[in-house]
Amino acid sequence: MSPKHNKGDLDDKDVFALKVQKKRQLLDNKMSKAIIREAVIMKSLDHPFVMSLFNVYQDAKEVYFLTNFIRGGELYRVLNEDGVGIALSNADAQFYAAGVFEGAWAQA
Hints:
By secondary structure, the protein is an alpha+beta fold. It has helices at 23-28, 32-44, 75-79, 90-107, and strands spanning 16-22, 53-58, 62-68.
């Protein structure tokens, strides 16, 4: 999905991602409220530099977040790929921080 798209301007060339969360894992880690909060916040955002959440689905075992595809994946995964956590370079940290501030500024 190009940054120029709005949530309502989808066509058959758009690419999506499906984030899958296991309900058992969410419950075991007491993350139920956090996942609901994440969905509410993501649904309320509509900015070209912030990932769009189009819908949330669930079945008996999992919760699914349908989002636009962003190459590189989640920042959480970038930081925790080896299970221990890594330090970002200054340039990468500045890039991610700028994205967060841009998203926060756009909602102000």
